[in-house]
Amino acid sequence: MKKFDVKSLVAGIIIGTMGITTVYAATGIKSAALSNTKITLNGESLPLSKSLISVTMDNEQNESLYIPANELFEILGYSVNYDGANNTVNLILDNKRSQFL
């Protein structure tokens, strides 16, 4: 059995969440603002260079926090490259390449 990989799990959750939340974006944004919320991973604060964005959708009371994907993947050890000509994000971890359109 393959060893459990936390980085892959977190990346999968984030990518899945990004896909699901775009459906909700169609209903309308009630408010969006920069957030000074701190993120910790295993009890250690993540060194974010950009602010999180707090978004509240129409007909919802709870807010969602968004982190720039490139910054999160870099913290998790990925090399992140954007190919503007092909509108593709390339992620490289341990010489293994993943591609997202």
Automatic annotation (TrEMBL):
This is Copper amine oxidase-like protein. It comes from Lacrimispora xylanisolvens.
